[in-house]
Design a protein that fits this description.
This protein is α/β, with parallel strands linked by helices. It has a single domain (56-203, 266-441), classed as Alkaline Phosphatase, subunit A (3-Layer(aba) Sandwich). It is 31% helix and 13% strand. It has 15 helices and 16 strands. The strands form 5 sheets. Strands 1, 4, 5, 6, 7, 10, 11 and 14 form an 8-stranded mixed sheet that branches. A two-stranded antiparallel sheet has the order 2-3. Strands 8-9 form a two-stranded antiparallel sheet. A hairpin with a 5-residue loop joins β15 (431-433) and β16 (439-441). α2 crosses α6. The longest helix has 25 residues, at 322-346. The protein is globular, with a radius of gyration of 23 Å. InterPro entries: Alkaline_phosphatase_core_sf, DUF1501, TAT_signal. It holds the Pfam family DUF1501. Residues 428-452 are annotated as: Disordered.
C-alpha cells in the first residue's frame, strides 16, 4: 500500500527511506514487482527504438467473452431455415449493400465508420481471451512462457507516451471464470510488461486508507500532502540515492494525471448518458458485466497516454436464451461502441486509435432446444473502427448457414498484423527477442490490405 506520512511531514528514525519508496510498489501483473521496474523497462525500450515513439497510436481491444453469435450480429442468414437463421431480421445500414442484425440500429446508422469481418477462422475453441489478446494459439512457445499479448509487446517496443500513465491498461472486471477477465498475458517477456489494472490491487496503492482520509478530507489537501512530502524528501536528500526510474515511480504516484483519467465525474452528464452505464447487468453468471463506462474510460486513458487498453464486455456464452441475450448485450454494445467511435472522431483521435470488438469463437448455425447456440470455432466475426483504416465495408463471407468461411478467410494473426501496423510497428520486420535470444515476429499473418 501507499505509505505516506501526513500532517507535519518529516523524516525521522520512524520513517526509513525504504518506507517512503514503497509508493512505487504497485502490482503490474506480478507480486513484488515495483512501478520502478516497469519504468526501467520502458526506458530501455525507448533507448532501443526511439523512432517508434514519434506518434501516439493506440488500440482499444474489447473482448466479448463467451463467443458472440455471428449469425445474430453482423452476418444475418436471410436465406437459411428459421432454426438456423433465428429470430432477428437484417436491417439496412448507411452503406449501400451492407446489412446487419436489427439489434444494432446505431451501428447501422454509422456503418461507414466500421469494418465487419465475417470470416474469422483459426479459433482453438478455448473459453479464454488468449487469441484475442495475442493473435497466437496458447501452445505457441509455451515452454518459454508463451506469446506476449499486444499490450505487453507494445509496452516493450514503444514504452510509455507519458511517464505518469502506463502504456498498457487492463480494465476487465474480475470474473468467476477467470480467463474471461484476462487483460493480456506477458508471455516470455516477463512480468515487468504486465498491464496496469485499476480495478485490482494497483489502484488500492493509489488511494488513501480510511485513517488517512480522516486527516485529508479533500483532494486539495491530498495534493498538498504529496507536495509537502516531495519537498521534504528533496530537502533531506532522501531520494538522492534512488535511481531515475524510482524517482519517476514516485512522480507517477504523486501526479494526478492517471487518477484524473480514471475519474468519470470529469465528463459531462451528456457524454456519460451517450455511453450509458450498461445496467442492469443481465446474463452475467460467471462472466463480465456489460460496463458501458469502461469504453469511456478507455478513451480517457488513451487520451492521457495509454497505448493499449483492453476490456471484457459481457458474457456471450449463449447455450440458452441466445436471442434474449443478444437483445440485452447487443443493444448496450450498440450504444457504447457508437458513442466511443463518435467521441474519438469529435476529438480528432479516430485515425490514431483502432477499436476492435470480438470473441474467442462463434456459435452454432443450428439453434438448440433451449433457444441457444453452442460453441462453434469454425468461424466467427469481428467489428473494427478507426486507426486510419478504410471502413464502411464487409470482409469475407460465410456459407448459407453461417457454418464456415465461404471466401476471404481471415486469421487471428492477420487481424493482429493489422493492429500492429496501425500502431506504427511493421509486423513483417519488427521482432521481439525471446529468452533464448531468438527474434520472434509479432504476428503470424499479414495486415489486411482491404483495411490498411
Amino acid at each position: 500500500m501507499l505509505n505516506l506520512p501526513f500532517g507535519h511531514v518529516r523524516f525521522c528514525d520512524g520513517i526509513s527511506r525504504r518506507s517512503v519508496l514503497k509508493v512505487g510498489a504497485l502490482s503490474f501483473g506480478a507480486l513484488n514487482l515495483t512501478l520502478a521496474d516497469v519504468l526501467r523497462s520502458e526506458a530501455a525500450a525507448k533507448k532501443q527504438d526511439p523512432a517508434a515513439r514519434t506518434g501516439h497510436k493506440a488500440v482499444i481491444n474489447i473482448f466479448l467473452g463467451g463467443g458472440p453469435p455471428h449469425q445474430d450480429m453482423w452476418d444475418i442468414k436471410t436465406e437459411a431455415p428459421k432454426e438456423i437463421r433465428g429470430e432477428f431480421e437484417p436491417i439496412r445500414t448507411n452503406v449501400t449493400g451492407i446489412q446487419i442484425g436489427e439489434t444494432f440500429k446505431r451501428i447501422a446508422g454509422m456503418a461507414d465508420k466500421f469494418a465487419f469481418i465475417r470470416s474469422l477462422v483459426g479459433a482453438r475453441g478455448g473459453h479464454d481471451a488468449f487469441q484475442c489478446t495475442t493473435g497466437w494459439p496458447q501452445q505457441s512457445l509455451a515452454p518459454m512462457g508463451g506469446r506476449p499479448s499486444i499490450g505487453s509487446t507494445v509496452m516493450k517496443l514503444q514504452g510509455s507516451v507519458d511517464p505518469s500513465v502506463p502504456a498498457f491498461v487492463g480494465l476487465a472486471e474480475k470474473t468467476a471464470h477467470t480467463p474471461w477477465s484476462d487483460a493480456g498475458q506477458t508471455g516470455f517477456l516477463g512480468a515487468t510488461y504486465g498491464p496496469f489494472k485499476p480495478s485490482g490491487p494497483d489502484m488500492a496503492n493509489m488511494v488513501l486508507n480510511a485513517a488517512n482520509k480522516d486527516h485529508l478530507p479533500d483532494r486539495k489537501s491530498l495534493l498538498a500532502g504529496f507536495d509537502a512530502l516531495k519537498r521534504t524528501a528533496d530537502y533531506q536528500g532522501t531520494l538522492n540515492a534512488a535511481d531515475a526510474a524510482t524517482e519517476r515511480a514516485f512522480d507517477v504516484l504523486t501526479s494526478s494525471k492517471l487518477v484524473d483519467a480514471l475519474d468519470l465525474s470529469k465528463e459531462s452528464a451528456k457524454t456519460r448518458a451517450r455511453y450509458g452505464d450498461g445496467k442492469p447487468y443481465q446474463f452475467q453468471y460467471d462472466g463480465a458485466p456489460t460496463v458501458n463506462e469502461h469504453l469511456l474510460l478507455a478513451r480517457r486513458l488513451v487520451e492521457a497516454g495509454a497505448r493499449v487498453v483492453t476490456l471484457s464486455y459481457g458474457r456471450w456464452d449463449s447455450h440458452g436464451k441466445n436471442f434474449d441475450l443478444v437483445r440485452d448485450h447487443g443493444t448496450k454494445l450498440d450504444q457504447c461502441l457508437t458513442a466511443l467511435v463518435e467521441d474519438l472522431e469529435v476529438r480528432g483521435m479516430l485515425d490514431d486509435v483502432t477499436v476492435i470488438a470480438w470473441g474467442e469463437f462463434g456459435r452454432t448455425p443450428q439453434v438448440n432446444k433451449d433457444a441457444g447456440r453452442d460453441h462453434w470455432p469454425q468461424v466467427s466475426c469481428a467489428i473494427l473502427a478507426g486507426g486510419g483504416m478504410r471502413t464502411g465495408q464487409v470482409i469475407g463471407s460465410t456459407d448459407r448457414t453461417g457454418g464456415s468461411a465461404k471466401d476471404r478467410p481471415v486469421g487471428f494473426g492477420d487481424v493482429f498484423a493489422t493492429l500492429y501496423q496501425n500502431l506504427g510497428l511493421n509486423p513483417e520486420t519488427t521482432t521481439v527477442m525471446d529468452p533464448t535470444g531468438r527474434p520472434q515476429h509479432l504476428a503470424e499473418g499479414k495486415a489486411l490490405p482491404e483495411l490498411v
